Amino acid sequence: MSESTKLVATEPQRLLVIDGHSMAFRAFYALPAENFSTDTGQHTNAVHGFVSMLLTMIRQQKPTHVAVAFDLDTPTFRSLEYTEYKGGRNKTPEEFHGQIDLIQKVMEAMNIPTITMDGYEADDIIATLAAQGEAAGLDVLVVSGDRDAFQLITEKTLVLYPKKGISDIPPMDGDAVEAKYFVRPEQYSDLAALVGETADNLPGVPGVGPKTAAKWINLYGGLPGILENIDAIKGKVGDSLREHVENVTRNRRLNHLLRDLELPVALEAMILDRPNREAVEELFDALQFNTLRKRLFDLFGDDPQDAAEEAEIPAHEMLGGAAALEAWFAAHGAQLLGVHAATVGGVGGTDVVGLAFASKDATAYVSLEEIDGETEQALAKVLSSVSHSKAVHDFKGTYKMLKNRGLELAGVTDDTMITAYLIQPDRRSHDLPDIAQQHLRISLDDSKAPASGQLALDFEGPDLATPAVRAAHAVRELSQHLAGMLVERGGDALLKELEMPLSLILARMEMSGIAIDTAKLDGLYEDFTVTINRATEEAYGAIGHEVNLSSPKQLQVVLFEELDLPKTKKIKTGFTTDAESLQDLLVKTGHPFLVALMAYRDATKLRQTVEGLRKAVASDGRIHTTYAQTVAATGRLSSLNPNLQNIPVRSEEGRRIREVFVVGEGYETLLTADYSQIEMRIMAHLSEDEGLIQAYQDGEDLHRFVGSHVFNVEPADVTNEMRSKVKAMSYGLAYGLSSFGLSKQLKISVDEARTLMKDYFSRFGAVRDYLRAVVDQARKDGYTETIFGRRRYLPELASDNRQLRDIAERAALNAPIQGSAADIIKRAMLGVEEGLAEAGLKSRMLLQVHDELVLEVAAGELEKVEKIVRERMGAAAELKVPLDVHVGIGTSWQDAGH
Q: Which among 283, 508, 760, 829 would be 20 to 30 A from 695, CA to CA?
């Protein structure tokens, strides 16, 4: 490790040493497991919380050295002496499994050593590190939730003792220990030996609490003095001490931390270094950490050895008139041009004020604020010309901004944002500065490079040209640089034939928006408010007093103390009050308070959705969502601001929300069209399972058909419960669902889920063979591939970390199926758009929601539109099973449902 890669040392030198398991469990219970998991089902809450806490401590404490100590599963000298040591601890939650390995992998990427020692605990490693650190003249900070660590406190060593969640980590010094326990830190082990330690299953002296133990310690100078004067201690507590003296001496032997281990890592190896950026990027992509990634890199800054260089670009020409503009394009327009829009209005600004152009050896800038009519006409001509080949970063956003100014952008052959995404679909950020940094090693920091569309930056001062020109130059260089990589990764055809044409369609859909019945939307808001108020009063009536129904802490008191209802899953702050657990509790007890509480929660969630929609209605009375093409690694589109892909449809109240989306003025009706069971049809096609293919070709109810084979009954005898189980499992297989995941989803035992999957595979062996083969092939190739050649590279398939391999294997299972479904609906959109244009119709697509399209149909065009939609969607792919398209018609989205 060279000096240039080390962080600048602070004075004094400071060692931060962390009890890995303690902090990991703290993080696990502080963050809900259900809110932190990858697309493939790997829980990451402990990993996320651990890294978040670590970054906070590095920022606040500024250590020069960092190390993390972990326990091993092997026996220690303590458990060999006392077999009940740490016995009786709760079983580790299933969601926690594997997260320690992932934390260790993150530490490796961050160049922070992790230390384990066979036969010893992390506490002994920590104590040894504290002793070594002090001997080397370092201040020492020990991070541990184990009170045994208090014995390590000296003038040079403090303990950071987490109390609440992952943010409250107060330091404990000698005075703090004495104030709380009435003994000095070096005597804490004596106190713990007398009182006992529940967490370690070390029983203390019955009847002796901390105050009594502290009184004895201060009176006799510590445990040795107490034992020397044991006969002088009178009363019941004295008798109890004499009766349990062996426990006390054993406790003292076991809670004493060793400070002289031969550690496998030297103190010099713990000097805090910058993370391995490439390793962190790859790992955080797999774990789907985005904001945490930014926090990490912001904290450590750029490595001088890897720092991006300033881009060397030709001085730009200010094109202030039509003649100058035409001359510049005549001289340079035959080359590929990088184009970038300068915007104002802060992040998300959409007011374009200038355009920058970059050719191989020249750059130029046009200010749209000072442009005259003749120059604007000349600019419009070159922008719309297909003879001028252009590269843009975020074509869709740029197209919309220019369209709003009456300018048409055409001739764009490359969107470097989409190209970078096709090359690395798992990468969390495809922003221009990030991509330029990664691929070109040039800097486009916020003060120099405004990004278009959503990523626009607010620049103060008159010089908008320079950063825009730098960005345009970077776009052109990126386009050239990435072209070969795109071809190598098989994405060239996808870019040209699918994603680029789709961007234009999406831009038009976003600008069109969908009409909203605002009166009905306001009425829904009021209705849900009434429901919330009614449910609140009913909840109060059920318990006889008011309570904050949004406070987990107050709900815990009501449910488990006042009402004494069965306990839910234990978490750090008590017993969980999450929706799933309370729904189970409601089914078990039917308590009226729970009925009201769940009604309150449902209505609150629905009102929040409605409130978000109300804010999103534009001045034209329509909602204009934004579609992201570069978010989902599988290729699926995402809907943002607002997200119209998660409008609830399963409940009657939720379906009412779809009623506010209506046909707009000048149009006759809405038409919805979607694919029936598209992912299962792709599964049948890819696996070539004869049974599944025959079922689809015969038009049978697939889930009933599969259920009859799995449960060995006639199709007519398949119950709704059987069908639901089979449906969940069939889709679960397409998502790489494990037997544990299936058991949670169906609320059955893991053994029953495992048996269900076994029976399924015994009947549909080709599916089992396909799922095995696709992972094996991905391991050989390093990537998975959809029917149309969309690749997802999965380097973690070769990882030496089992959890990362598991994540990658689940991704390898679902990527071809989900990705093929995404490709098919995109191809369908291209086909429908082409069909509408060829027929000269005014009808238009408004929304894409997963496998569903929503169109606004002009008067007299319904029959033609429906024919086009059915034909083009049905022809989007040639599968071994038919693509079944369902169509619905109505004046609202809900009425048009089917």
A: 829
* Residue 165 belongs to a domain: yes
Residues 6+ apart with CB under 8 A from 587: none
Q: Are both 584 and 733 inside the same structural domain?
A: no
User: How distant, in Å, are the alpha carbons of 530, 539, 566, 586, 599 from that of 535?
Assistant: 9, 6, 22, 15, 6
Residue 120: CATH number of its domain: 3.40.50.1010
Tokens of 525: 């808001």
CA-based nearest residue to 809, from 742, 731, 738 = 738
Let me know: does 287 contact 47? Beta carbons within 8 Å: yes
Boundary of a domain, candidates 710, 741, 763: 763
**Tokens read off for 414:** 């490359």
User: Could you tell me if 645 and 707 lie in one domain?
Assistant: no
Name the domain count of the chain: 4
CA angle (110 as vertex; 418, 795 as ends), nearest 5: 45
Mean pLDDT of the chain: 89
How do beta strands 114-115 and 65-69 pair?
Answer: parallel
pLDDT tens digits for range 89-101? 677 888 898 899 9
Give start and end residues of each alpha helix (H) in 489-591: 492-494, 500-512, 518-543, 552-556, 579-589
Q: Residue type at 818?
A: Q
Tens of pLDDT along 209-258? Answer: 999 999 999 999 999 999 999 999 999 989 999 999 999 999 999 999 99
CA distance 671 to 668: 10
H helices of 765-875, where? 765-781, 802-838, 862-874
CA 581 to chain centre: 23
Q: Which domain holds residue 641?
A: 516-662
Q: Model's pTM, two decimal places? A: 0.79
Residue 83 in domain: yes
List, in order, residues 6 or more apart from 875 with CB less than 8 Å away: 831
Burial of 212 (0-12, 13-18, 19+ CB in 10 A): middle
Q: Distance (Å, rounded) from C-alpha 644 to C-alpha 662?
A: 14
Residue 320 within any structural domain of the chain:
yes
376-420: pLDDT as tens digits:
999 999 999 998 899 999 999 999 999 999 999 999 999 999 999
Distance, CA of 893 to CA of 896 (rounded, Å): 5
**Could you tell me the two tokens for 116?**
């384990």
